[in-house]
Design brief:
232 residues, 7 helices, globular, alpha/beta, Rossmann fold
């Protein structure tokens, strides 16, 4: 995939701008009537909301928590997803030689946070059915891919017929890994040196829980009201 300077056309204004650009690609790859758009909160929700509303498919969240190295939380050694799915980044674990008790402490902490977010985002509302459907999993950027890989495992357990990964920007080596685990990967930008995800956005402000809930719209109905689908 071609790459341009971050000051060029491939720098996104914000997450919603990135979502609008992704929607054009996604619309050509899915049947909205047989698809569900799933956001990884919180940063993936503004991106996914644009995709869902523009392609005409329902929106929901897929809850996944990164397992961060204790002294460097931004570095993931794995991820945990709903359904007690755990994915480890074996390369990171080998390099850092984490003790089993250190790993267990992080896993238990993130499981608790996952449960809190389940209550926050869902309440009593069940997740949208993905069995037999195309699930489009959306994030605002992918570095190591641990979180996304946990999401893919969770969707496999839930019986999704086809899984599409969608993100504005990702590390090229991570895209290669995800292409082996997902049915399709849609990534607008694969810079040879990713740096931080926020580097590729003019506005990468944190998304609060309140903002995340607003993107879900009427949470009792399972997502946004789809607009007329984009033409293929």
């Amino acid at each position: 995939m071609s790459w341009a300077s971050p000051s060029g056309p491939h720098r996104f204004m914000d997450r919603r701008d990135a979502g609008r650009q992704l929607a054009e690609r996604i619309a050509k790859r899915i049947d909205p009537s047989q698809s569900v758009i799933l956001a990884l909160p919180r940063g993936g929700l503004p991106v996914a909301h644009e995709i869902a509303s523009r392609v005409g498919a329902p929106l929901d969240v897929l809850l996944v928590r990164k397992l961060g190295v204790p002294w460097q939380p931004e570095l993931a050694f794995g991820a945990v997803a709903s359904g007690d799915v755990i994915v480890h980044n074996e390369e990171v674990l080998r390099e850092l030689d984490l003790a089993p008790q250190e790993i267990d402490q992080v896993v238990e902490r993130e499981r608790a946070e996952l449960a809190r977010r389940e209550r926050l985002y869902r309440g009593a509302r069940p997740s949208l059915e993905v069995r037999g459907k195309t699930a489009v999993v959306v994030d605002d950027g992918i570095a190591t891919g641990s979180t996304m890989r946990a999401a893919l495992r969770a969707l496999e357990q839930r019986g999704a017929a086809r899984v599409v990964v969608a993100c504005p920007v990702a590390a090229p080596e991570t895209v290669e890994i995800l292409m082996r685990e997902a049915d399709d990967v849609v990534c607008l930008l694969e810079p040879p040196y990713l740096a931080a995800i926020g580097f590729w956005y003019d506005d990468f402000s944190p998304v609060s829980d309140d903002e995340a809930l607003s993107f879900l719209g009427d949470t009792t109905s399972g997502g946004v009201e789809p607009q007329p689908a984009l033409g293929g």
